[in-house]
Amino acid sequence: MKKFIATIKNIWTIEELRNKILFTLLLLLIYRVGSYIVLPGLDPNQLTNLANSSKGGMLGLLDAFVGGAFAKASIFALGIMPYISASIFMQLMTILVPQISKIQKEGESGQKKINQWTRYLTVIVTAFQAAAYIGFLKSSNQGALLPAFQPYFWVSTVVLLTTGTLFVMWLGEKITDKGLGNGTSIIIMVGILARLPQNFMQEFTAKQTRGGGGLLIFLVEIAAFIAVILGLIVLVQGVRKVPVNYAKQIVGNRQFGGARQFLPLKVNAAGVMPIIFAQAIMFLPTIFLGFQTTGKSWALYFTQPTNLVYMIVYSIMVIGFTFLYTALIFNPRQVSDDLKRSNGFIPGVKPGQPTTDYIGTIMDRITLPGAILLAVVGILPGIAQLLGVTQGFATFYGGTSLLIMVAVVLDTLQQIETQLLMRQYDGLMSSGRIQGRQSVAPGVTGNM
């Protein structure tokens, strides 16, 4: 406890770090306040059907990402998700389209162009999703719309939802520039965490009605929840260390190289992206149906996490996207060339193509178990719900929600620890260093 108090004091004594933390908390407070501002023209007391319709399935997941703003018909109902969709699309374009890739390699000016295109694309995506959201509001909450405001509702809602998404995007960029960094990831994490206390109490109340046996089941669920978090930490930070030797070089009277180091290859190099890609594709039928899933049996296969077909299709997609995205972001030949230029080599492996093949083989071997574990994490909420966990609390047993929470918390702690070590303070942990992780959308969301 004394160590923890001393660490807090050290953090508070660093003016730069203290200002970053306070600035981040201020912007997050603004975001949370905006999540409770209802769209004009709606009666908040008549939105019970909207809350019930967005409890389960993919709508429940979307509502979790935006901190409950979707179910409240808030001006931030779509949150930062359109920006993430646009960022993912632009990132794929930089990999698949040579012209855009060339612009990205122009340095800061090229990155500014891509960021500006991402913002324009965000407006288009938000407008499209806002139109679908309006159809969902009108169909499930006809009594909530005030008759006098009905002629203006469509235009005002599209404008406000688009403006709200752009404002949240701006908040994320400011957190990245002047706050703790990774603003978009932190905003998503806060939205997810905002629902945890309420869902925790709902689960406790549901189990308490069963008597003593229910309380024991609740304790078992908490133990399983902690075990899943520990497993995710291992998955996020797990690496395969490939030994690398560097040849000795003598320049004048000084010797360089000759050290033995390790090349860390991440078990989950793709991060959370395969789950996001898979969920985005599974979510498409819901968007085309105007967020409606009732009465359309074929759509239930893509919207209900407890459905066996959903689990199988979802797992296959996660595994496939894990290999695809890892192949896009990790280039064994580039790693081999970098080792060759720095006079490094893997013991027992010839430089050049043999090194490339060796690194590629290792990545394939460690990516497979990583992909399978990622798929298991993705379907854990559905399994938990089948075992009797309430819908809200089951979303925290895995999937994108918990994976983003664990990854963002680790990355934020790693940045705070770096600030402490730079000023010769002790780190946050007595042993070892906290490893960072990739952003929600690596390479593109670094500015979020």
Automatic annotation (TrEMBL):
UniProt-listed SUPFAM superfamilies: Preprotein translocase SecY subunit
Protein localization: Cell membrane; Membrane
Regions crossing the membrane: 21-39, 75-97, 117-137, 152-172, 179-196, 216-236, 267-288, 308-330, 366-387, 393-413
GO biological process: one example: protein targeting
Coiled-coil boundaries: none
UniProt keyword terms in alphabetical order: Cell membrane, Membrane, Protein transport, Translocation, Transmembrane, Transmembrane helix, Transport
Annotated GO CC locations: plasma membrane
Known function: The central subunit of the protein translocation channel SecYEG. Consists of two halves formed by TMs 1-5 and 6-10. These two domains form a lateral gate at the front which open onto the bilayer between TMs 2 and 7, and are clamped together by SecE at the back. The channel is closed by both a pore ring composed of hydrophobic SecY resides and a short helix (helix 2A) on the extracellular side of the membrane which forms a plug. The plug probably moves laterally to allow the channel to open. The ring and the pore may move independently.
Family membership noted in the UniProt record: Belongs to the SecY/SEC61-alpha family.
The protein's assembly and partners: Component of the Sec protein translocase complex. Heterotrimer consisting of SecY, SecE and SecG subunits. The heterotrimers can form oligomers, although 1 heterotrimer is thought to be able to translocate proteins. Interacts with the ribosome. Interacts with SecDF, and other proteins may be involved. Interacts with SecA.
NCBIfam families xref list: 3a0501s007
Name recorded for this polypeptide: Protein translocase subunit SecY
Taxon lineage: Bacteria, Pseudomonadati, Bacteroidota, Chitinophagia, Chitinophagales
Gene: secY
